Amino acid sequence: MKLRPAQILVLGFATVILVGAVLLSLPVASKSGESVGFLNALFTATSAVCVTGLVVVDTYTQYSLFGQILIMFLIQIGGLGFMTMTTLIFLILGKRITLKERLVMREALNQLTLAGVVKLTRYIIFTTLIFEGLGAFFLSLRFVRVYGLYRGIYYGIFHAVSAFNNAGFDLIGNFRSLTPFVEDPLVNIVIMGLIIFGGLGFSVIYDVFTIRNFHRLSLHSKVVLTMTVFLLVAGFLVIYALEYSNPKTLGSLSPAGKILAAAFQSVTPRTAGFNTISLPDMSLAAKYFTIFLMFIGASPGSTGGGVKTTTFALVLMMIYSVITSKEDVEIYKRRIPMDNVFKASVITVMALLQVLSVSLLLAITEGADFMSILYETVSAFGTVGLSMGITPHLSDAGKVLIILTMFSGRLGPLTIALALASKKKTAMLKYPEERILVG
Amino acid sequence: MKLRPAQILVLGFATVILVGAVLLSLPVASKSGESVGFLNALFTATSAVCVTGLVVVDTYTQYSLFGQILIMFLIQIGGLGFMTMTTLIFLILGKRITLKERLVMREALNQLTLAGVVKLTRYIIFTTLIFEGLGAFFLSLRFVRVYGLYRGIYYGIFHAVSAFNNAGFDLIGNFRSLTPFVEDPLVNIVIMGLIIFGGLGFSVIYDVFTIRNFHRLSLHSKVVLTMTVFLLVAGFLVIYALEYSNPKTLGSLSPAGKILAAAFQSVTPRTAGFNTISLPDMSLAAKYFTIFLMFIGASPGSTGGGVKTTTFALVLMMIYSVITSKEDVEIYKRRIPMDNVFKASVITVMALLQVLSVSLLLAITEGADFMSILYETVSAFGTVGLSMGITPHLSDAGKVLIILTMFSGRLGPLTIALALASKKKTAMLKYPEERILVG
Ligand SMILES: [K+]
Ligand SMILES: [K+]
Fold first, then answer.
1. Using only C-alpha atoms, what is the Rg of chain B?
2. Residues of chain A contacting residue B292, judged by C-beta atoms under 8 Å apart
């Protein structure tokens, strides 16, 4: 039996998660020497491999050093694995791009040979290590002063890996995430930088570093960079305005701290999952706005999740075309093929249907308020990891639902669907066409 | 200057609403003899013409007989006007159907001449009067016994008009809607019947009454009927199960009353807006499920709102095709043209974006909880009229937002967009194609 790419991805991820869950459920993985229980271990392993960061138990308080380092490795495998695997599988197969296949960097790196594959993989690993190494160095400068030499260096490495892979796991303890460092420029800027670069996707980083001229970049890279800057700036302005006078979030900070915290809170929903201010204390409008950002997420082929910046951009441009009665969807003087636009809208609608269905089920299984349920669902789907605090109190059914949501959110509903589907059939018989009145 | 069809619709509706608002703000329209205020009158007129049923003031308590009858006329103009205008405008123009134009019954009634137009209009008015007349007669049988002869007959007519046009306005008083009649089979069955027939759309009613054989119906009619039955049955089962033991809704009713109330509560979100049980007392899951039903709404060219049953059906079938790796979207042995499917997904995404944006703004302007805000927004967008009770307490900004949402929900975001857009341009220059990686 020959596995199709989507099936390789799904089975590969599932295997890593299961192995991770078994190891994390060992007593030696827990600080207390008592097993955390298989469901909680499965939750943690899924959250780590899918670089989500939602936690049912506090990482620092619950897990031993062995458990913590295992989680770090799961994050690295998950982040790197997804980046390389999605990139490679489709390049190796060299499939023609259709509505139902993912295009990965065909334009950026064409004519791939086996030598090219090895080179590409090496390039991706090298890039990852450079970013994580630099991040770990700068973070250690601060953490050594807080936690001492060894623990400080260890914390630098762990949080650099967690940030570049958009995982959002932390070792600060008691579910506090990075709140103790809310006004620390060094920690904030390094973490934000790692998140942003990790969320661009390898092909864009490659494009930018080799071409160095915006006008000559691939259309994909241009759209990713434009949307990223737009979402970061808009996110900063909206959160700064909405939370400026909220005494429980930005209100009590210094002027510089306000700017830093609002910037961090615009970066992290896409889709890192760290936080420096108290999320449940944010205003209703700011929480809701954060849900939007989490849903959009990062860019394709990156360590981040969500429906992706480019998908959102195409949907916006599609609406713009309809409104202005244009025949084609055009961006930066390029015409986007209709099946490309169509795929973006299929992904968006599928993602929305999934988020809505899961949150409807959680509304039945959990006793929480609606905003918390929707927030947690989108956070899981977008592999974000921001939380209203209900995750540690989920029922078993709720945990299973969130585990499945993280998994399909990481691989994309489309990939899961393709993995489950039987092989593509070409219809023997074409039925006659007939229209339906819509809208 | 020649107006385009979308502009005629938008300007026509706006004019009727403004005239209605001016009349309703006259002191003589109020029971107390004091004007209700222009903003409240504008809200009521918009709600009536857009057959929504959301109210900032109680219709019976606030408005004089003159005001009430005016509201009934606005409902009739709105319901009938939309049905005939959407049907006619596009038939008269005989436009080729593109992504950007609405198809109305081209298949059902082809080769339309001016004589045909007059005949069609007469047919629509005749059908409406038959349904409303029968409904008014049966409702009067009950209402005469409760309210006396004259008021009973008047109530029969008012509520028949309100139900067939999916308007949801009532004269029971104190925002109670039809709750006093929760266990009354006659009122329930007549109102449900009017809502369902009103929500099918004229072309389907015509099709069914002339052809009388499911297999020979147009594909459009088949899809409308299938989805309508499916949504009614599914809605009934879900609400019955979720609310069965809720003492504040179904729990306190007799076995037959439970069935009647659950049935009613599955019919009314699409998109009538009457209620027989207390909506704010429903469980979180049932409220959320109701939001789904409200969003989907009724069928195209009908008196109901929402994204429409056929739009939802096409989106579901599109996802099914992607999952099963089929090349085409097929329903009942017919292939749906790709631009038809594409339009359905554009409408869905536009509707979602609008609902999300409006509820985000309401989260800023109003002090209500998130579920109530989302519920009220979808209710306004789908011209449903069900309410968590926050509408009478809206801020002025909130009222304006809901007014705009009802208006664009009734005409469809696409129609509004087309009315605002400049004339269709054929691009002089085709840009080269380039793909973007999505999802
Ligand atoms: K994350
Ligand atoms: K209504």
1. 21
2. 356, 360
Q: Are B243 and B283 in contact (CB under 8 A)?
A: yes
B252 Cβ contact list (under 8 Å, min separation 6): none
Let me know if B147 is exposed, middle or buried by CB neighbors in 10 A (0-12, 13-18, 19+).
Answer: middle
pLDDT attached to residue A57: 94
| Tokens matching residue B310 | 């056929």
DSSP state of A103: -
Structure tokens at A19: 């192995």
Determine which of A105-109, A245-249, B49-53, B137-141 has the lowest per-residue pLDDT on average: A105-109
A7 touching B, CB under 8 A?
no
Per-residue DSSP letter, A254: -
pLDDT at A380: 95
Assembly ipTM? 0.86
CA of B432 to the centre of ligand 2 (A): 47
* B103, pLDDT greater than 50: no
Within 8 A of B294 by CB-CB distance, chain A residues are none
Query: Quick count: other Cβ atoms within 10 Å of Cβ B262?
Result: 26
Instruction: Kindly state the tokens that stand for B180.
Output: 């006093």
Give the ligand whose atoms come closest to the C-alpha of residue A298. Answer: 1
What letter represents residue A22's amino acid?
Answer: V
Please report the DSSP string for B75-94 in residue order.
Answer: HHHHHHHHHHHHHHHHHHHT
Place of tokens 């939750």: A43
Q: What is the pLDDT of residues B107-151, one digit of tens each?
A: 334 334 555 667 777 888 888 999 999 999 999 999 999 999 999
CB spacing of B434 vs A364 below 8 angstroms? no
Hey, what long-range contacts does B361-364 have (CB within 8 A, 24 or more apart)?
B361/B401, B362/B398, B362/B401, B363/A284, B363/A285, B363/A288, B364/A242, B364/A285
Q: Does B300 touch chain A (CB under 8 A)?
A: yes
How far from A344 is each of A86, A100, A289, A308, A381, CA to CA, in Å? 18, 11, 22, 9, 17
N-terminal to C-terminal alpha carbon distance within chain A: 44
Amino acid found at B209 = F
Min distance B146 CA to chain A CA atoms (Å): 39
What is the band of A9 on the pLDDT scale with cuts at 50, 70, 90? confident
Query: Which residue type, as a one-letter code, is found at position B332?
Result: Y
Nearest CA in chain B to A369: B284
| A436 with B99: Cβ contact below 8 A | no
**Nearest CA to CA, how far is B332 from chain A (Å)?**
9
What's the number of CA atoms in the CB half-sphere (13 Å) around residue B101? 19
Q: Which residues of B touch A321 (CB under 8 A)?
A: none
- Tell me the mean pLDDT in the region B410-419: 77
pLDDT tens figures, A180-221: 999 999 999 999 999 999 998 877 888 888 888 888 888 888
Q: Which of A347, A420, A423 sits opposite B438 (nearest CB)?
A: A347
Cβ separation of B438 and A340 shorter than 8 Å? yes
- Inter-chain touch A343–B439, beta carbons under 8 Å: yes
Q: Containing H/E element for A377? A: helix A370-381
**Backbone torsion region of residue A369, taken as left when φ is above 0, otherwise alpha when ψ lies between -120 and 50, otherwise beta:** beta
> What is the spatial distance between Cα B56 and Cα A200, in angstroms, rounded to a whole number?
48
The H-assigned helical ranges of B25-64 are 38-49, 59-62
Q: Coil, helix or strand for B334?
A: strand
pLDDT in tens, B190-229: 999 999 999 988 778 888 888 888 888 888 889 999 999 9
Q: Measured between alpha carbons, how far is residue A399 from residues A40, A41, A291, A403, B277 in Å? A: 8, 11, 20, 6, 33
Whether the Cβ atoms of residue B199 and residue B228 lie closer than 8 Å to each other: yes
Asked if A365 is an interface residue toward chain B (Cβ–Cβ < 8 A), one would say: no
A346 touches chain B (CB under 8 A): yes
Q: Which residues of A touch B334 (CB under 8 A)?
A: 431-434
Check if the beta carbon of residue A249 is closer than 8 Å to that of residue A276. no
